[in-house]
Amino acid sequence: MDEQLEELxxxxxxxxxxxKYSEAEPILKEVLKEKPNYADVLHxxxxxxxxxxxxxxxxxxxxxxxxxxxxxxxxSLNLAITYNDLGEFQRAQEVFSIAAQVAHPAPGTLDPFVxxxxxxxxxxIGNIYLDFGMDDEAIEEYRKALKLSPxxxxxxxxxxxxxxxxxxxxxxxxxxxxxxxINPSYSQAWIQxxxxxxxxxxTGLAIEEWEKAFERNPHLKEAQNYIQLIRKEEER
Length: 236
Fold this sequence. Notes:
Blueprint: H1 3-17, H2 21-34, H3 39-51, H4 55-68, H5 73-85, H6 89-103, H7 112-131, H8 135-148, H9 153-165, H10 169-182, H11 187-199, H12 203-216, H13 221-235
Helix pairs in contact: 1-2, 2-3, 3-4, 3-5, 4-5, 5-6, 7-8, 8-9, 9-10, 9-11, 10-11, 11-12, 12-13
Protein backbone atom coordinates (compact mmCIF):
# COMPACT_ATOMS: atom_id res chain seq x y z
CA MET A 1 0.00 0.00 0.00
CA ASP A 2 1.15 3.58 -0.56
CA GLU A 3 2.53 5.56 2.35
CA GLN A 4 -0.60 7.65 3.04
CA LEU A 5 -2.87 4.62 2.97
CA GLU A 6 -0.47 2.68 5.20
CA GLU A 7 -0.60 5.50 7.76
CA LEU A 8 -4.42 5.42 7.70
CA UNK A 9 -4.41 1.64 8.04
CA UNK A 10 -2.00 1.68 10.98
CA UNK A 11 -3.96 4.45 12.71
CA UNK A 12 -7.29 2.68 12.23
CA UNK A 13 -5.91 -0.63 13.50
CA UNK A 14 -4.28 1.07 16.50
CA UNK A 15 -7.51 2.80 17.48
CA UNK A 16 -9.41 -0.48 17.11
CA UNK A 17 -6.93 -2.37 19.30
CA UNK A 18 -7.25 0.38 21.92
CA UNK A 19 -11.02 -0.04 21.90
CA LYS A 20 -11.67 3.40 20.38
CA TYR A 21 -14.21 2.00 17.95
CA SER A 22 -16.06 5.22 17.08
CA GLU A 23 -12.75 6.80 16.06
CA ALA A 24 -11.51 3.71 14.24
CA GLU A 25 -14.68 3.17 12.17
CA PRO A 26 -14.44 6.12 9.72
CA ILE A 27 -10.71 5.51 9.21
CA LEU A 28 -11.16 1.81 8.50
CA LYS A 29 -14.01 2.62 6.11
CA GLU A 30 -11.71 5.03 4.26
CA VAL A 31 -9.03 2.35 3.97
CA LEU A 32 -11.61 -0.12 2.68
CA LYS A 33 -12.77 2.39 0.07
CA GLU A 34 -9.26 2.39 -1.40
CA LYS A 35 -8.48 -1.28 -0.79
CA PRO A 36 -11.62 -3.44 -0.49
CA ASN A 37 -9.60 -6.66 -0.18
CA TYR A 38 -8.20 -6.23 3.34
CA ALA A 39 -9.66 -9.11 5.34
CA ASP A 40 -8.49 -7.75 8.70
CA VAL A 41 -10.08 -4.34 8.06
CA LEU A 42 -13.35 -6.03 7.07
CA HIS A 43 -13.22 -8.18 10.18
CA UNK A 44 -12.62 -5.23 12.49
CA UNK A 45 -15.45 -3.27 10.91
CA UNK A 46 -17.62 -6.33 11.42
CA UNK A 47 -16.76 -6.30 15.12
CA UNK A 48 -17.62 -2.59 15.33
CA UNK A 49 -20.97 -3.15 13.59
CA UNK A 50 -21.70 -6.08 15.91
CA UNK A 51 -21.01 -3.97 18.99
CA UNK A 52 -23.33 -1.27 17.61
CA UNK A 53 -26.08 -3.84 17.13
CA UNK A 54 -25.92 -3.56 13.34
CA UNK A 55 -25.85 -7.34 12.95
CA UNK A 56 -26.62 -7.62 9.23
CA UNK A 57 -23.77 -5.23 8.40
CA UNK A 58 -21.54 -7.27 10.70
CA UNK A 59 -22.47 -10.49 8.87
CA UNK A 60 -21.67 -8.88 5.52
CA UNK A 61 -18.21 -7.80 6.73
CA UNK A 62 -17.34 -11.18 8.28
CA UNK A 63 -18.50 -13.05 5.17
CA UNK A 64 -16.43 -10.80 2.90
CA UNK A 65 -13.40 -11.29 5.15
CA UNK A 66 -13.85 -15.06 4.94
CA UNK A 67 -14.26 -14.96 1.19
CA UNK A 68 -10.85 -13.28 1.00
CA UNK A 69 -9.32 -15.56 3.62
CA UNK A 70 -11.29 -18.77 4.27
CA UNK A 71 -8.85 -19.68 7.06
CA UNK A 72 -9.58 -16.52 9.07
CA UNK A 73 -10.61 -18.31 12.28
CA UNK A 74 -11.56 -15.20 14.26
CA UNK A 75 -13.85 -14.00 11.47
CA SER A 76 -15.52 -17.44 11.36
CA LEU A 77 -16.15 -17.45 15.09
CA ASN A 78 -17.52 -13.91 15.08
CA LEU A 79 -19.75 -14.74 12.13
CA ALA A 80 -21.10 -17.76 14.02
CA ILE A 81 -21.81 -15.61 17.07
CA THR A 82 -23.59 -13.00 14.96
CA TYR A 83 -25.73 -15.63 13.20
CA ASN A 84 -26.64 -16.99 16.62
CA ASP A 85 -27.74 -13.52 17.79
CA LEU A 86 -29.85 -13.19 14.64
CA GLY A 87 -31.59 -16.45 15.51
CA GLU A 88 -30.05 -18.31 12.55
CA PHE A 89 -28.89 -21.18 14.74
CA GLN A 90 -28.28 -23.75 12.01
CA ARG A 91 -26.08 -21.39 10.01
CA ALA A 92 -24.25 -20.46 13.21
CA GLN A 93 -23.52 -24.14 13.90
CA GLU A 94 -22.34 -24.75 10.33
CA VAL A 95 -19.92 -21.82 10.44
CA PHE A 96 -18.67 -22.85 13.89
CA SER A 97 -18.01 -26.42 12.71
CA ILE A 98 -16.02 -25.16 9.71
CA ALA A 99 -14.04 -22.80 11.97
CA ALA A 100 -13.16 -25.69 14.30
CA GLN A 101 -11.91 -27.80 11.39
CA VAL A 102 -9.81 -24.94 10.01
CA ALA A 103 -8.36 -24.05 13.40
CA HIS A 104 -7.24 -27.62 14.12
CA PRO A 105 -6.54 -29.31 10.77
CA ALA A 106 -3.99 -31.68 12.33
CA PRO A 107 -2.25 -32.25 15.67
CA GLY A 108 0.65 -29.89 16.28
CA THR A 109 -0.36 -27.34 13.65
CA LEU A 110 -0.69 -23.67 14.48
CA ASP A 111 -4.04 -21.91 14.27
CA PRO A 112 -3.89 -19.72 11.11
CA PHE A 113 -5.25 -16.76 13.05
CA VAL A 114 -2.50 -17.12 15.67
CA UNK A 115 0.10 -17.58 12.93
CA UNK A 116 -1.09 -14.38 11.26
CA UNK A 117 -0.91 -12.44 14.52
CA UNK A 118 2.61 -13.69 15.22
CA UNK A 119 3.70 -12.90 11.67
CA UNK A 120 2.38 -9.36 12.06
CA UNK A 121 4.40 -8.87 15.25
CA UNK A 122 7.59 -10.05 13.53
CA UNK A 123 6.77 -7.68 10.66
CA UNK A 124 6.40 -4.73 13.03
CA ILE A 125 9.69 -5.52 14.76
CA GLY A 126 11.37 -5.89 11.37
CA ASN A 127 10.12 -2.44 10.38
CA ILE A 128 11.66 -0.94 13.52
CA TYR A 129 15.01 -2.55 12.77
CA LEU A 130 14.78 -1.38 9.16
CA ASP A 131 14.07 2.22 10.24
CA PHE A 132 17.23 2.16 12.37
CA GLY A 133 19.38 0.74 9.58
CA MET A 134 19.74 -2.65 11.27
CA ASP A 135 19.21 -4.64 8.09
CA ASP A 136 20.42 -8.05 9.28
CA GLU A 137 18.03 -7.99 12.22
CA ALA A 138 15.20 -6.77 9.96
CA ILE A 139 15.85 -9.60 7.50
CA GLU A 140 15.67 -12.15 10.31
CA GLU A 141 12.31 -10.80 11.55
CA TYR A 142 10.79 -10.64 8.06
CA ARG A 143 11.86 -14.22 7.38
CA LYS A 144 10.20 -15.33 10.62
CA ALA A 145 7.01 -13.57 9.53
CA LEU A 146 7.05 -15.29 6.14
CA LYS A 147 7.70 -18.68 7.71
CA LEU A 148 4.44 -18.24 9.62
CA SER A 149 2.45 -16.61 6.78
CA PRO A 150 4.20 -16.95 3.40
CA UNK A 151 1.67 -14.96 1.34
CA UNK A 152 2.16 -11.44 2.71
CA UNK A 153 3.16 -9.05 -0.10
CA UNK A 154 4.11 -6.20 2.24
CA UNK A 155 6.49 -8.48 4.18
CA UNK A 156 8.09 -9.77 0.98
CA UNK A 157 8.56 -6.17 -0.15
CA UNK A 158 10.14 -4.98 3.10
CA UNK A 159 12.40 -8.04 3.10
CA UNK A 160 13.43 -7.13 -0.44
CA UNK A 161 14.31 -3.58 0.68
CA UNK A 162 16.41 -4.88 3.59
CA UNK A 163 18.22 -7.32 1.28
CA UNK A 164 18.82 -4.55 -1.26
CA UNK A 165 20.34 -2.40 1.47
CA UNK A 166 22.86 -5.21 1.95
CA UNK A 167 23.45 -5.21 -1.85
CA UNK A 168 21.90 -8.67 -2.11
CA UNK A 169 20.07 -7.58 -5.24
CA UNK A 170 19.16 -10.96 -6.71
CA UNK A 171 17.52 -12.12 -3.48
CA UNK A 172 15.68 -8.81 -3.24
CA UNK A 173 14.35 -9.20 -6.79
CA UNK A 174 12.97 -12.65 -5.92
CA UNK A 175 10.96 -11.23 -3.02
CA UNK A 176 9.66 -8.21 -4.97
CA UNK A 177 8.46 -10.59 -7.68
CA UNK A 178 6.86 -12.83 -5.04
CA UNK A 179 4.94 -9.82 -3.71
CA UNK A 180 3.76 -9.00 -7.24
CA UNK A 181 2.58 -12.57 -7.81
CA ILE A 182 0.70 -12.68 -4.50
CA ASN A 183 -1.00 -9.34 -5.09
CA PRO A 184 -0.48 -7.70 -8.51
CA SER A 185 -2.21 -4.57 -7.18
CA TYR A 186 0.40 -4.04 -4.48
CA SER A 187 2.09 -1.00 -6.04
CA GLN A 188 5.11 -0.82 -3.74
CA ALA A 189 6.41 -4.17 -5.01
CA TRP A 190 6.56 -2.74 -8.56
CA ILE A 191 8.09 0.53 -7.33
CA GLN A 192 10.79 -1.17 -5.25
CA UNK A 193 11.61 -3.67 -7.99
CA UNK A 194 12.12 -0.74 -10.37
CA UNK A 195 14.44 0.97 -7.89
CA UNK A 196 16.45 -2.24 -7.55
CA UNK A 197 16.83 -2.57 -11.32
CA UNK A 198 17.89 1.08 -11.48
CA UNK A 199 20.55 0.49 -8.80
CA UNK A 200 21.87 -2.41 -10.87
CA UNK A 201 22.12 -0.13 -13.90
CA UNK A 202 19.18 -1.78 -15.66
CA THR A 203 17.35 1.46 -16.45
CA GLY A 204 15.12 -0.04 -19.13
CA LEU A 205 13.77 -2.69 -16.76
CA ALA A 206 13.31 -0.06 -14.05
CA ILE A 207 11.19 2.13 -16.32
CA GLU A 208 9.19 -0.91 -17.40
CA GLU A 209 8.28 -1.71 -13.77
CA TRP A 210 7.34 1.88 -12.97
CA GLU A 211 5.25 2.21 -16.12
CA LYS A 212 3.35 -0.97 -15.22
CA ALA A 213 2.85 0.34 -11.68
CA PHE A 214 1.50 3.63 -13.04
CA GLU A 215 -0.80 1.81 -15.47
CA ARG A 216 -2.29 -0.15 -12.59
CA ASN A 217 -2.60 2.91 -10.39
CA PRO A 218 -2.75 6.26 -12.25
CA HIS A 219 -2.71 8.07 -8.90
CA LEU A 220 0.72 6.63 -8.12
CA LYS A 221 2.77 9.82 -8.53
CA GLU A 222 5.87 8.10 -7.17
CA ALA A 223 6.22 5.95 -10.30
CA GLN A 224 5.54 8.89 -12.60
CA ASN A 225 8.17 11.01 -10.85
CA TYR A 226 10.83 8.31 -11.17
CA ILE A 227 10.13 7.93 -14.88
CA GLN A 228 10.31 11.71 -15.45
CA LEU A 229 13.60 11.98 -13.55
CA ILE A 230 15.20 9.27 -15.66
CA ARG A 231 13.88 10.78 -18.90
CA LYS A 232 15.39 14.14 -17.96
CA GLU A 233 18.65 12.46 -17.05
CA GLU A 234 18.74 10.71 -20.43
CA GLU A 235 18.15 14.05 -22.24
CA ARG A 236 21.22 15.67 -20.69
